[in-house]
Amino acid sequence: MQQAADKFPVTRHSVIAALQGEDPARRSHALEAITAAYWKPIYKHLRLRWELGVDDAQDLTQEFFLRLIEKDILAGYDAGKGRLRTYLRTCADRLFLNQSRDARRIKRGGEAALLNLDFETAERELTQASSSEADGVEQRFEREWLRSLFALAIERVQQQYRVARKLVPLALFERYDLAEHEGSRPTYSEMAEEFQVSVSDVTNYLAAARRDFRQCVLDQLRDMTATEEEFRAEARVLFGGLAIRRGLIPGARK
Amino acid sequence: MTWIPDQVVDRLRETLASPDLSGTRYRAIRLLGRGGMASVWLAEDTVLDRQVALKVLEFEDAEGNLATRLLQEARIMASLEHPGIVPVHDAGTLADGRVFCCMKYVQGETLERQVAGLESASEGLRLMLRVVEPLAFAHSRGVLHRDLTPTNIMIGAFGEVLVMDWGLAKEIYRDGKVSTEASLGSSGDSVRSRAATTGIVGTPGFMSPEQVRGETASVRSDIFSLGAVLAFTLAKCAPEGKRYRLRQLKAICEKAMAADPAARYDSVEALAADVANYLEQRTVTAYRENILERTARLINRHSTAIVLVLAYLLMRGLFILLAKR
């Protein structure tokens, strides 16, 4: 067994720190990271919370993230007062309310800069998601935030494994852990036969891929949070939420 | 970006939460509970073929303080060999980097749940006397618990009483002597009630005022918590006895929970002695009784003897009366 100290990562700078810094390259990278992590949750939130049409929601999402870049919305964020995702959601709500009140919608187009956001996919995902009206605004946003977090972490894993030529472990992880339906998941023996490895290799590859996925999720989470306290709070949501929701913890409140 | 259906999100979340026990002798059975920083799993020790409880740190902080604290908790518990303190079997780091601690699996209920079934205040008090034993032992070894609450006291299947969750415990031995105070908020301290930066440790409602203020904790801080647990237990039990007896109990709780640490009992044993005195209808140090109360208590305490003497005198009187006729 390893010493605990060997396993702990050095303190990382979050995207918020990069955004508040002076280095334009780091700022640009950080904005990209924020947009990648949050645009889908924000878009879906606007569609569901305010029942905006597809075009309006797309315009407002573009507007929101461009304002984020141009007007430095994040400068007003105080990590001590709340979570980054809650802050961004509130800012998006405020933007919608202001624009509705003023009835002076700014339609982006023509020469205005547009972010390359795949709204078609987001729209398709909205129809596939099982979240219902019964879920509150916060729960639905949290769900989309989580989906976004996992998707980015999976991309990290895929990138790392492709670079390291770990194609069999990656394929096993995708076939087994990312299988859409329980019924479509192959058994370990079937996968061993298909990839011509032993069953114990399948077990070990999957365990290693899950470890790496876990690490990528935590790295991504650090990137998506502003402070160590926020990171811990979000990690608690990440690890604790499922158990509470499924009633695994007696007496825990939903 | 890859689309992840809801069922896959749930599955991945479950994967993240489960400890990676590959390469260890343990096999996870089910989740027992989840705290702020760690989860506790029922697991099978495949070598010794027995069930154990695995406490696993859910995630690491950047500085590794949480891991240090969990290992420190394991070391402290391992150093306290007492029937009222859960034995630690093993501690280390899992393949996924998470620190874990393997303990005896205790089946039972927490005091918080158990109090609902207590039949009388006396039963609750006798239970509290057994809580004092491991705590007194820890204090004698220079260890403060600092987070005594009804949820951290377990009543086992055979009625054994165990003090659990030593995650905020602090060793107060210094230079081979027991110091009366331990600094709070020092390096390695973790936090249960507020943000890590405040240096405040404990559970609101049960932690002493000095802990709330982030000041130094001492044995008397644990006495405050014990008093709060005592008050919690008594509040759930049906009152019994005369009114002055209730005043005695109230005085015991108030003395244990005095705002000024100097006004509290000076040891958990002293608190236990007062509780025992109450149960045996002796004078309690926390309550100054008047002559009527003292007389009533003595009558109550010696009621059998008094009845016997009175019966004897009555019989004797009758005998003399009949003899004269």
Summed up, what is this model?
The complex is a heterodimer of chains A (254) and B (325). Chain A contains 11 helices and no strands.
Descriptive overview:
The complex is a heterodimer of chains A (254) and B (325). Chain A is mainly alpha-helical. Chain A folds into two domains: 14-113, Rna Polymerase Sigma Factor, Chain: A (Orthogonal Bundle), CATH 1.10.1740; 137-248 and 250-254. Chain A has eleven helices and no strands. Chain A has helices at residues 4-7, 15-20, 24-49, 54-70, 84-102, 119-128, 137-163, 167-176, 188-195, 199-224, 228-245. In chain A, helix 9 crosses helix 10. The longest helix of chain A has 27 residues, at 137-163. Chain B is an alpha+beta fold and 325 residues long. Chain B folds into two domains: 6-104, Phosphorylase Kinase, domain 1 (2-Layer Sandwich); 110-279, Transferase(Phosphotransferase), domain 1 (Orthogonal Bundle), CATH 1.10.510.10. In chain B, the strands form five sheets. A five-stranded antiparallel β-sheet of chain B has the order 1-2-3-5-4, covered by helices on one side. A three-stranded antiparallel β-sheet of chain B has the order 6-8-9. In chain B, a hairpin with a 5-residue loop joins strand 4 and strand 5 (99-104). In chain B, helix 4 packs antiparallel against helix 6 (219-236), helix 4 runs antiparallel to helix 8 (268-279) and helix 6 runs antiparallel to helix 7. Chain B is elongated and about 110 Å long. The relative contact order of chain B is 0.09. Mean pLDDT of chain B is 84; it is low at 178-198. The interface between A and B is large, with 62 and 46 residues.
Q: Give the structural class of chain A.
A: mainly alpha
Return Rg of chain B in Å: 25 Å
Could you name the ranges of chain B where pLDDT drops below 50 across 5 or more consecutive residues?
Answer: 178-198
Number of DSSP strands of chain B? 14
Level of helix content of chain B? 40-55%
**Architecture (CATH level 2) name of the largest domain in chain B:** Orthogonal Bundle
Could you name the ranges of chain A where pLDDT drops below 50 across 5 or more consecutive residues? Answer: 1-13, 241-254
CATH topology of the largest domain in chain B: Transferase(Phosphotransferase), domain 1
Task: Name the chain pair whose interface involves the most residues.
Answer: A-B, 62 and 46 residues
* Average residue pLDDT of chain B: 84
Count of spatially separate domains of chain A: 2
For the sheet with most strands of chain A, the description reads: none
